Amino acid sequence: MTSLKAIIGNLYNAKHIFSYWLLVIYFFHIPFVNAIEQSDLADDEILVTSGETNAEIQQKIDEASEGQTLVFDVGNYTLNLNLSKNVNLRGIETANVILKSDGVNPIVQVNEFVKSTIRNFTFSDAKIALDISAADSLFITNNIFRVGSGNIAININEFPGVSILNNTFYDSGTAISVSQNQSSHVIKNNIFSKFDSLFLNVLTGDVKFSCFDNSVINYSDARNNKVLNDIAFVDADKNDFHLLESSECIDNGEGSLDVDGSQTDMGAYGGDEADQISFPISGINVVENGGDSNVKVSWEKNNDYRISGYKVYYDKEMIKGLSTSSVEKLSSTQVAADVTTVDIF
Questions:
Q1: What is the pTM assigned to this prediction?
Q2: Pairing with 101, which of 14, 91, 128, 277 sits 20 to 30 Å away (CA)?
Q3: Rounded distance, CA 104 to CA 319, Å?
Q4: Is-contact 229 247, C-beta < 8 A?
Q5: CA neighbor of 334 nearest in space, from 308, 299, 303
């Protein structure tokens, strides 16, 4: 049987500006690793990899200059970090930079008056994911929180200055707990879904333009929001919190626009700081189809509403572009790709 190497990626409409590629070998499936190097980053960014210990990452925070950003590569991290200076934390890909607790301490503690941003992470399995005792101007944006039953995603102990924008809170005890009477916290454009008994324990603040489902509202000023029977995630069980085309959370946020200039979506993939990476293509199968130079390539459909089609690559050279708006419209799960124009090895 002939060996074929193909790369299959998603093609985006105006709501998506980058592509995400998955490498497939004819006989073997090799998971995609979105590895980055320090040379890929800006001068004010510092690379963090999953092979580093908590102590090593903490040292990078402590030694960073004011205003620098630690950029976390794809991977799983077990952390107990202390953010005590004006340093930003950013994941390279929201769904696949997963931060977990050590089982005892919060994943990140903020106990100084910092001006920082924490964005593009998945926070998982923690009694408290973010524990904030002080903040001057702290922005928590475009994250996924699924910390587990009975646990707290964000705990704000005192002091003003926290903005919680475009996050997705899913399957946890409490999404946001604010224990002091502060009116300057801004909580908007978030999605709250499937909490134990309540999603907010907020004394004061501004909670608006968010989507809720299957949760109990415990806040008197939760306004301009949508309470839905179904948020319409692509596949929450697989950590794919992109939105289906039917979701009422699309184009219903407030403030910063999405990357295409339209009104912002609610949740982790809305707003101008959301990552533009689709969830990886899965279920790829390549089989011979009538000869050495003709194969059939099939995969599971990606239901993110922003995806309009797919591209099939061979050795990084595109051999077939397939758009749902063209004459080569895809079926839901399968497409035949004629690769006679490329070499087979």
A1: 0.81
A2: 277
A3: 51
A4: no
A5: 299
Token pair recorded at residue 134: 């002080």
Mind listing the pLDDT tens digit of every residue in the chain (345 residues)? 333 444 455 655 544 333 333 333 333 233 344 568 888 899 999 999 999 999 999 999 999 999 999 999 999 999 999 999 999 999 999 999 999 999 999 999 998 889 999 999 999 999 999 999 877 789 999 999 999 988 999 998 866 678 999 999 998 888 888 776 555 678 889 998 887 655 455 555 556 667 667 555 554 445 555 555 578 999 999 999 999 999 988 988 887 777 667 788 999 999 989 988 888 877 777 776 665 556 677 777 888 888 877 776 655 555 555 543 332 333 333 334 433 332 222
Tally of residues, the chain: 345
46-243 CATH, one of 2.160.20.10, 3.40.50.720, 3.10.20.80, 3.40.50.620? 2.160.20.10
- DSSP character string of 111-178: -S--EEEEES-EEES-SEEEEES--SEEEEES-EEE-EEEEEEEEE-S-S-EEEES-EEEEEEEEEEE
**What whole-number distance in Å separates Cα of residue 243 and Cα of residue 269?**
8
- Percent helix, strand, coil in the chain, to 5, is 5, 40, 55
Helices within the chain (DSSP H only): 54-63
From residue 243, alpha-carbon distances to 96, 267, 268, 277, 309 in Å are 17, 9, 10, 13, 16
83 pairs with which residues across the strands? 110
Give, for 2, the enclosing helix (H) or strand (E): none
Tell me the pairing of strands 186-188 and 148-156: unpaired
Q: Are 73 and 98 in contact (CB under 8 A)?
A: no
Cα distance from N-terminal residue to C-terminal residue, the chain: 10
